[in-house]
Amino acid sequence: MPLSRIEVRRPRPDHEVHALIEAVYQAQREALGVPEGDRQIRYVEHRPDRFAAPPTRTDDYTVVEITLFPGRSIDAKRALYASIVRRFGEVGIAPDDVFIVLHEPPLENWGIRGGQPASEVDLGFPLDV
């Protein structure tokens, strides 16, 4: 149940927006074993003057933040990063313009399925990938 946010510094056509959302979703499925249909991905577009970027980055600079349940291995995270960067490349975003951050709050900090702590719920899928 990752919560993902893609933040960009310039407008993109709808087909590219949908491709970026799909890229993050497919990378999560591939690398983390996220269940089919588990897609909670937001796309946020900023004006460049309201989204500062390192001076060596272009207007394609894109930040992806993913909040997810803890438990994934470093190999799974590496695969996630590589898959997102590769898939964004298919949309024309250079690898150096992609910045990815993962947040892993403990399961007791997630209120799911009617407000129950995730630590007390059978999630129905493994986290140790």
From TrEMBL:
Signal peptide location: none
Superkingdom of origin organism: Bacteria
InterPro entries from the UniProt entry: Tauto_MSAD, Tautomerase/MIF_sf
UniProt feature coiled coil, ranges: none
Gene3D superfamilies the record matches: Macrophage Migration Inhibitory Factor
Pfam families, A to Z: Tautomerase_2 (PF14552)
Record PANTHER family: TAUTOMERASE YOLI-RELATED (PTHR38460:SF1)
UniProt-recorded name of the protein: Tautomerase family protein
